[in-house]
Specification:
Layout (H helix, E strand, L loop, with lengths): L8 E5 L5 H9 L3 E7 L4 H6 L27 H17 L4 E5 L22 H10 L6 H26 L4 E6 L10 H4 L5 H4 L5 E4 L11 H11 L5 E7 L9 H11 L8 E3 L1 H5 L2 H11 L4
Parallel strand pairs: 1-2, 2-3, 3-4, 4-5, 5-6, 6-7
Helix pairs in contact: 3-5, 9-11
């Protein structure tokens, strides 16, 4: 089915990697990427209780539905996740790695205003900032430092791939906020500086889930265009098929695919494939719009 639908890349969670399946895909010229969710998960709160983010007032971050944010500066989490990434690099046959949840804690899908609880002010963050910068944890020096922590983690991964001498691309799932959205929230809250990241990231997939975020389909191209202007890298959207907060119709899905074909988008990812395959109308729209006629 994947071959019939013309997909040229597949992204799978690293825990679900299957070598036989990956080899079959790669034999048929379909690239395989392993996705790893980094600073997220209740299991980290349980393993390292002090990895639970702390807000400016000293309050612990609550769970938000399924989402359990994790401090990106917790040394144990960083060490363990880098060990997982080393395993992907050296033991998996993949064409690339997608870094997911490589950011500061925020359930961004539900954000509708600039009044966002900011993280993280735990002891690890306070001590690290004090040592590296000093002064008040506010303003541009604080924001720039936060962004640097995310970029530096990506750089460590980039360097480990380089030293392995394996042909593995490094990709990232970007939060789809434009520079001015939510009080410059992409840097201030999320800690993703796309210009900085472009020095170590090959591909940017923007999580442009327009229905989840209450945006029109035209917004998808606006997000991709703004990020693409900041760099000479492949940038494209992940478009929504999953029924959140309601069913995505085949017509809406088709509209998002059409907008994703506009320049400067370098492609499109479906979020997610399993859902699309369960809806034959969506499959037909995909074939009509995305599969070249033979």
């Amino acid at each position: 089915t994947i071959l019939e639908l013309g997909f040229n890349e597949i992204c799978v969670n690293w825990k679900n990697y299957n070598k036989d399946f990956a080899d079959q895909l790669r034999t048929n010229d379909v690239k395989v990427f392993a996705e790893i969710g980094l600073f997220v998960g209740k299991e980290w709160w349980e393993k390292y209780p002090d990895s639970r983010p702390v807000d400016r007032q000293g309050n612990l971050m609550p769970p938000i539905h399924w989402y359990h944010g994790v401090c990106p500066n917790h040394p144990g989490v960083r060490r363990d996740q880098l060990a997982n990434i080393d395993r992907i690099i050296h033991e998996f046959d993949v064409d690339g790695i997608y870094l997911d949840f490589v950011r500061y804690p925020c359930h961004w899908e539900e954000v509708r205003s600039a009044e966002i609880t900011e993280y993280c002010f735990c002891d690890h963050c306070r001590e690290k900032f004090k040592t590296e910068v000093g002064g008040t944890m506010a303003g541009e020096q604080w924001i720039a430092w936060k962004c640097k922590q995310i970029t530096n983690f990506a750089k460590i991964v980039h360097d480990r791939i380089h030293h392995s001498q394996r042909a593995i691309k490094l990709a990232i799932f970007g939060v789809p906020w434009k520079a001015g959205d939510f009080g410059s929230g992409i840097r201030r809250i999320i800690g993703q500086d796309f210009t900085e990241l472009s020095e170590v990231i090959d591909t940017f997939c923007m999580m442009a889930y327009h229905q989840i975020t209450d945006n029109p389909v035209e917004w998808i191209n606006e997000v991709v265009s703004e990020v693409a202007e900041q760099m000479n890298r492949n940038v494209f959207p992940a478009v929504q098929s999953v029924p959140l907060p309601k069913h995505v119709t085949a017509e809406t899905f088709a509209a998002s695919l059409k907008i994703s074909k506009h320049s400067p988008s370098a492609g499109v990812m479906v979020f997610h494939l399993e859902d699309m395959l369960q809806d034959q109308k969506k499959v037909q729209q995909w074939k009509a719009l995305m599969v070249p006629e033979s």
